[in-house]
């Protein structure tokens, strides 16, 4: 099919679905402040926002997804066993790479969720055709709470109630973690380096990882960096000399890769053995996904063992049971506990 023919088919489908004319509708305001008219009932949802996709599941609406990007899952092989149990359709609905408007439109979606920072041009194409698009920009705790509220508004009162419960839980966990370490003087707080897909890739101060580190009572040594992941040399890491090193739950880097590297032996975190890889069940806990509520609790326990008032296992059970309706197996618990 040629590109011109693909666009023509998309326009026909959009008109047939009543996305541009007629049909019951309501207005939802997205994170860019756009007032978006969406169908009153959403039965077919496409999400090109890999983070936002997980909020659809947390709201109990995952069965509406006909195509989705999932942060940390570029291929089915990258999905955890737990993720495949949560979404058995993943091999059929998982998409990756740059979103293609013809491909998505042929799935006849009622609505598309989009990441404004990555896919603004795609969103414009979809809107020109007549498909409603909700755009997001979330890299802070405040923006996350906005994100789930906006997404819930798309669906139902039940989804709104779930979003309200999640927001209350999110605030409760963050407050409890922060309160547990509030009395620590600045010079006694652990200095933390957050590593991504390579030992030379570190999180910047603009990223959500910094918010998690600081909420858990740590000091992000790379907070002066800007943008997304930064590539730095070992010399800079030696200058920072972090007390704790946390490795993202995606990528191939393991704690042993750092602990056993002779070039890293002068770093305090290596000398004390405080190098940890963050767990992951569905989505990476260090990204602005619902599971990051567990990420901050996990970080606090690694930074200051026994200090946090949070019962980590209880929070894990509550989260996966109440927001995903997911039954944890012994293997799942082993993953979450780093066993």
Q: Give the biggest sheet.
A: 4 strands, parallel
Number of strands: 12
Q: Look at the structure and give the mean pLDDT.
A: 92
Structural class, please?
Answer: alpha/beta
Estimated share of beta-strand residues: 5-15%
The total domain count is 2
Give the helix level as a range of percent.
Answer: 40-55%
Q: Which architecture of the largest domain per CATH?
A: 3-Layer(aba) Sandwich
The rounded distance between the terminal residues' Cα atoms is 50 Å
| Order of the strands making up the biggest sheet | 4-3-5-6
Task: Tell me the CATH topology of the largest domain.
Answer: Rossmann fold
Cα-atom radius of gyration: 21 Å
H and E string:
HEEEHEHHHEHEHHEEHEEHEHHEHHH
Helix segment count?
A: 15
Shape: globular
- CATH domain class name of the largest domain: Alpha Beta
Within CATH, the superfamily of the largest domain carries the name: Nitrogenase molybdenum iron protein domain
List low-confidence stretches. 1-8, 14-22
